[in-house]
UniProtKB/TrEMBL annotation:
Reactions catalysed according to its record: AMP + diphosphate = 5-phospho-alpha-D-ribose 1-diphosphate + adenine
One Pfam family recorded for the sequence: Pribosyltran
InterPro entries associated with the record: Ade_phspho_trans, PRTase-like, PRTase_dom, UPRTase/APRTase
Keyword DNA-binding applies: no
Residue span, Phosphoribosyltransferase domain: 87-186
Gene3D superfamilies linked: 3.40.50.2020
SUPFAM superfamilies associated with the record: PRTase-like (SSF53271)
Subunit structure: Homodimer.
HAMAP family assigned: Aden_phosphoribosyltr
Pathway recorded for this protein: Purine metabolism; AMP biosynthesis via salvage pathway; AMP from adenine: step 1/1
Function of the molecule: Catalyzes a salvage reaction resulting in the formation of AMP, that is energically less costly than de novo synthesis.
Listed name of the protein: Adenine phosphoribosyltransferase
The organism's taxonomic lineage, starting at the top: Bacteria, Bacillati, Actinomycetota, Actinomycetes, Pseudonocardiales
Amino acid sequence: MTGETQQQPDLAAAVSGVGEAMAAAQQAVVKQVTLAGDLEAALDLIRDVPDFPEPGVLFRDLTPVLSDAKALGALVYGVAAACPAADVVAGIEARGFLLAAPVAYGCGVGMVPVRKAGKLPAVAAKVSYALEYGTAELEIAVGAIQPGQRVAVIDDVLATGGTAAAACELVEQAGGVVAGVVVVLEIAALNGRAELEGYQVTALRTV
C-alpha cells in the first residue's frame, strides 16, 4: 500500500447530475413539443390572396407569420429542424432569403442567395424555368458554392416545382450536391414534387 487515500465517487453529486441531465432532456422535449404546437399556429397565419400576381393565381402570403415574433421563431425552428445535414444553405429569392439566413446562422453554416437574373455582378450559372404564371431565370454567384459541398435548398412555397428544380440545377452546375429541399408550404394539386424527382423534399405543411 502506498498510504494514499483512494478518492471515492461522490454518489450524491452523481445522482444529482443524472437528475439534472434528465431534467434538461425533459425540458428539451417539452420545448420541442411546445415549438411544434407554435409551428402549427404559425402556419395557420399564412394568408391566401386570390388573383395575385395574376388573375386565377392564389398567392400564399407569409407576411402575417414574418411580422409576428413568436410565429417567426417557430417557423425558423421548423425549417431548421426539417433541413438535412448540409455544409451551406441556399435561399431562393426572395422569400427564401428570409428563412435561409436565420436557419443558416442557427445551424452554424453559410447561406447562399439564389438570385433572379441581373442581380449578381459575377455569375457562375444561370437557369431558365417555368412559373405558375410565366417564365423566369435564376442565377448563382461565382464562388458561392465550393465543389462537393452539400447544400440544403430553402423556399417558402412549392407550387409547380420549377423554381426549386432550377435552384437545384444551379447548385449542381456550381459543383455542389443537393442535400434536400425544404419548403414551408406545398401545394399538392400542382404536383411540384414531380419536378424534383430524385431529391429529398420536405414540406412543413401540404395543402
